[in-house]
Structures are given as C-alpha cells and as structure tokens.
C-alpha cells in the first residue's frame, strides 16, 4: 500500500479506542431492548445521544407505536455516493436466567471480553458503527458521499424496522449490516418459511375402533405419522440442492400437537415445520413443494386430509460478487486481519434480505463476534473484534465515499 494511504489509515485507526469500544458495548448490553415485546426506545435514545455527540445529523422515525428507528448522517461534500452501516436495536430474550453464569444484562468486561445478552448480536456491531463514524469525523477527512448509520427495531421478529427505512426516504447505494460474522464479509444468506401442517380426522369413541375404520373413524395422529415420514424423506432431496455459498436447504419438524382425550379418536393433529430456503428459492416454491407431498399422500389414501398454512417467512438474499461493496469489504477485512479473506454465505436470516429484496441495494453482512455466540447463554464478544470492525467500516467508507 502507498505510504500516504497508510498514513491516512493510521490517522483514522488512532482515533478508535478500545476502552471506548468496550464502554459502548457495556452500556448497550445494560439497556434491555428485548424483543418480544420490543423495548427498543431506550436503545434508540442512547444511539441518538451518541450520534449527536459525534456530530451527525440525527433523527428518529417511529415505525410502530413507541418504537423508533434512529438514523445519523455524516454529510459528505456532495452527498453521493452513499454508504449505510446498519444494525438492529433489539435482542432476543435471555431465556432462563438461572442457566447463565452471570446477569445477562450486567454488561461487564473481563480479559478483553464483554459479556451479556446482545454483546455479540448485535450491540457490538452498533458500537463499531459509532466508532467508525467518530474516527472519520475526528480525522477531518472530507468525504464526498454521505455515511449513514441506521439502528432499526424488530430484526429479531419480523424486520419491520428495516422495511420502514426506504419508505421514509432513508436509503443508500450500498449497505453493510453489522451482524456477527467474525469480520468476514458475507454476500448471501438463507431464507426461511415456517409451516403449520394439520391432518383432519374423524372422531369416535375409542372403544369402537376397528382396523378397517368401520365406524368411519379416521385417526388424525396416525395420518400425521405418514406425513412425518414423507417430510423426513424430503430432507434427502433437499440435501442434493447444494449452493456453494450457503449450503443446502433443509426441512425440520419442530412441534407436534394432537388429540384431546385418551378415549377419543383424534380428529386433528398439527405439526410446525421449519424450511430453510436457498437465496434464490421463493417462499411460494417451498410451499408448492410441500403441497405436492401432501397431495401425493391423499392420492395414495383418500382418507388423508390435510391443511397447509404459512406461519411466517423471510426471504433469502444474495449480492452479486462484482458489486463494489463486496470488493471493498473484502479488501478492508484483508488489510485488518492481515490474511486472505474469502467472501462467503450464512445460514441465518437477517435484515440484509430487506435491503436486497425490497430496496434492491447491494448489501453485505460484516461485523464483530461470531454467529455461534448469538442467542445463546453466556454470550460474549471480544473487544478486539469491535475495534477491528470499526477500522474495517472506516476503510470501506473512506474508499467508497472518498
Ligand atoms: Zn442479529
């Protein structure tokens, strides 16, 4: 790298402080922005305050009653192109607090690790975004384009915060979502669809059953066994559809309920099914596939009656490898990690999906912490990764907007 560029980078890096990084994450872990129900207000206010301290143009947008996205803008000389650094304000609930070795919302550092719910997913990412913007601002480098920081609500449930950005006029030419990726750029992730499948039977008193169903009885639980076998077999088909970035799609039965009393033939049995989608698979395609399996079963045995519903879904996402944001993220990660970096894919869904599918913006995931640490007990993040993510964000901003 030319000496002059090196000096500029060092000048920016010298303004990213590890104590400040740690304090930011600790502060945010202490703010219990748990979703559900979605208590992001204090987080939005905290970010608003921090963004104002840096000198960004800040505003809040209420997306759902009492729940606001926060946006901060570091203005460039001409205002384009634009780069958005995005993070979500909410965290998943801690679950049974007795299973934690410490208070999940204590927010403390020991030996370079900050502990607590949200430390990895993704208050560390938000901290890195703030640190990058602050370092750029302090170094007084005149960027041409705008750097936009967004903190959004509801990622851990339905992504309703990210969906509200572009309708409110907040958009960009490229986006980095600062989810935990161990600083490796990710340009594709899977989608998901949750189904409920029910079998519909015919109830009679259990004392009257016969193997031929002479009384017209149909046991919905027995019928469901046939459905379950087919779904289990279907996973084998899905394992043959391998995508080089995200692996293969999957299907898995998560819950089962059925029957009301031991002495009544059950007339209904329901399962919930988690189907993970490849980036280019649609929710409708996945539904049609399951529908076909159920139709085939009914063809083989007309007494099998089923009902199929979508409970929720999020699409997968993919960004073209030739997009500048992919190249710039890779280069910046390689500079900071001092090794070759391969851009990859993820099995987890995220708000990247909204930027790619709804807003048509080239987007990557890149942030501190590992995905394996997200949503688990005794979650922690390494301060060093928070600092390094901030450096990567600053370099990408410098190159993309300079
Ligand atoms: Zn997350």
What are the defining features of this structure?
23% strand; 4-stranded antiparallel β-sheet; 402 residues; 10 helices; binds zinc ion; alpha/beta
Describe the structure in brief:
With about 400 residues, this protein is of the alpha/beta class. The protein is about 35% helix and about 25% strand. It has ten helices and 16 strands.
Question: What would you note in describing this structure?
Answer:
The chain is of the alpha/beta class and 402 residues long. It is 35% helix and 23% strand. The chain is built from 10 helices and 16 strands. The chain has a 6-stranded mixed beta sheet with strand order 1-2-6-3-7-15, with helices on both faces. Strands 10-11-9-12 form a 4-stranded antiparallel beta sheet, with helices on one face. Strands 4-5-16 form a 3-stranded antiparallel beta sheet. Strand 4 (108-110) and strand 5 form a beta hairpin. Helix 2 (18-30) packs across helix 10 (383-401), helix 6 crosses helix 7 (283-300) and helix 8 (324-337) crosses helix 10. It is elongated. It starts with a helix and ends with a helix. Zinc ion binds at residues 88, 121-122, 155, 179.
């Amino acid at each position: 790298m030319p000496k002059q560029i090196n000096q500029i980078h060092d000048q920016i890096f010298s303004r990213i402080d590890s104590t400040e990084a740690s304090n930011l994450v600790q502060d945010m872990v202490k703010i219990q922005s748990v979703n559900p129900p979605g208590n992001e207000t204090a987080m939005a206010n905290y970010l608003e305050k921090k963004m104002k301290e840096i000198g960004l143009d800040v505003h809040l947008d209420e997306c759902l009653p009492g729940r606001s996205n926060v946006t901060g803008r570091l203005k460039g000389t001409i205002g384009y192109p634009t780069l958005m650094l995005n993070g979500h304000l909410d965290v998943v609930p801690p679950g049974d607090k007795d299973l934690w070795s410490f208070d999940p919302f204590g927010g403390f550092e020991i030996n370079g690790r900050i502990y607590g719910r949200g430390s990895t997913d993704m208050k560390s990412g938000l901290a890195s975004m703030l640190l990058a913007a602050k370092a750029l601002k302090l170094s007084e480098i005149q960027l041409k384009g705008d750097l936009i920081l967004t903190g959004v609500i509801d990622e851990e449930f339905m992504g309703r915060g990210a969906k509200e950005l572009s309708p409110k006029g907040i958009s960009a030419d490229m986006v980095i979502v600062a989810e935990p990726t161990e600083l490796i750029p990710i340009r594709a992730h899977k989608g998901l669809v949750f189904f409920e499948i029910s079998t519909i039977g015919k109830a009679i008193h259990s004392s009257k059953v016969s193997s031929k169903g002479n009384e017209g009885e149909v046991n919905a639980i027995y019928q469901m066994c046939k459905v379950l076998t087919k779904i289990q077999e279907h996973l084998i088909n899905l394992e043959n559809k391998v995508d080089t970035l995200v692996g293969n799609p999957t299907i898995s039965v998560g819950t089962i309920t059925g029957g009301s009393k031991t002495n009544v033939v059950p007339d209904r049995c329901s399962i919930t099914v988690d189907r993970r989608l490849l980036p280019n698979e649609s929710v409708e395609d996945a539904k049609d596939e399951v529908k076909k399996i159920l139709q085939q079963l009914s063809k083989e045995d007309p007494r099998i009656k089923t009902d199929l519903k979508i409970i929720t879904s999020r699409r997968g996402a993919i960004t073209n490898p030739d997009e500048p944001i992919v190249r710039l993220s890779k280069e910046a990660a390689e500079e900071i990690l001092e090794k070759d970096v391969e851009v990859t894919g993820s099995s987890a869904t995220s708000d990247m999906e909204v930027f790619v599918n709804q807003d048509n913006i080239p987007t990557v995931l890149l942030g501190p912490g590992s995905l394996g640490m997200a949503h688990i007990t005794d979650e922690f993040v390494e301060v060093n990764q928070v600092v390094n993510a901030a450096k990567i964000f600053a370099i990408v901003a410098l190159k993309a907007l300079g």
